[in-house]
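Write out structure tokens for BCCT family transporter.
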Amino acid sequence: MLNKLKKDRVFFISIISLISVLIWSIFNIKDFEKTCNNTLNFLLNKFSWFYILVMISFFIFCVIIGFGKYGNVKLGKDDEKPEYGLLSWFSMLFSAGMGIGLIFWGIAEPLNHYIKPLNGQGFTQEAKIFAMKKSFLHWGVSPWACYAVLALALAYMQFRKNKPALISSLLIPLIGEEKATGWLGNIVDIFTLFATVAGVVTSLGLGALQINSGLNYLFNIPENIKVQLVIIGLVTICYMLSASTGLDKGIQTLSNINMSIAGILILVAIIIGPTFSMFQNLFQGFSAYTKELLIDNNNIFVKGQWYKDWTIFYWGWWIAWAPPVGIFIARISRGRTIREFLLGVLLVPSMVCFIWFAVFGTIGFNVDSTVALEAVKRTETAFFVVMNNYPYGAIISTVAIVLLATFFVTSADSATFVLGMLSSNGSLNPKNSKKFVWGVMQAALTIMFLLAGGLEMIQKVSIIAAFPFSFIIILSMISLRKSLKDECVNVETSRLKQKFREMYN
């Protein structure tokens, strides 16, 4: 019994601590929310430069590692083949990384920037370009670089060095295995579990709200807590069933379905919308985005409320999502080279995001200004309000709700899988019993915060947690660089020894 408690101490401490802290926060939600607001405002006001700087460093690190001498190093043994085919790999990493957010913000964000740009007048051609380049910035290479850095370091330690699939494993090259597997490592893993749960609960809550809003807008289904509880309950059953079937059958199948539905949705949108304008906005937005990638878009000295509300907020959000997404991407990337991994994780999902925002952003730009202003009043319904003004808009919105639900299930499924790994000493195939506990925990906490009206607060908690977690990602870059350098030195030493043996024999 003592051995089991010691083995599972991360699991038990996390569950007990999480329940205690969150029950306390709900019963004191006003005070807790005030503390969160003050902390978040302090971080956004004093450390906005830090968020921007670390996001730039993630991208630069990926470029250096991917295109340098370490690019051909395998995430696994030298003769290993990729565990998953390219299509399934792309589908899984994309579904886990961003899926649900594309429906939520695909029309809403570009439309917000188009109506009220940072500078100049809204509803102009300049405002369109501004809206595209900022949407590309917030959803393109930068967030995927954040995921890629952590995922790459984890995959390398798991599959190349045979270490547990834990965030604490990243500390081994820096502090040694004994400390990394002791209480210091346990604290890092428990903190990672907390950050993961906070991010997932927010995503589940926002997903339930948008599905409910869409059903209300299309079919007059009441928009209230009872319907949201039913949605969460049904989704919970789906992702629990998916999680119990394992990675190959559950998440992989759902992810492939997601991408198929998303492909159909975007193809229909291109056909019914202003097709030429979509491609024009794509190219003009992409041109503006790349020109200003390291100047205006990532200037660490930017100030102002607009940047705090959008760019800095997003940077904290993506860092907060790095633990569950990074761990999951690492899990599905065995057998790929570092260069192949980085090209796949950085470029393909980013291009899909660029196309998605160009297509649906243009659909938003093309409606009457009255409709546009009405759409941005509520982010949850922006997609449905705009699509209602196009042919077959109701059908497209219905398909979007289905896609929202499948993305919803996949995100929760992959997060449940990750939580199971983190609380099972890094097991690549955690037991269904632990996945079940985390699945129920996620649903219960989402319901509790919806009932308490504290969903926005838990989102802020997640972003606050991103600040200390950013240092863990920085350490992971240092750790990976050190491990790769040591490996190359060892390989070169072995090669020289072999050469001397051949010479003297």
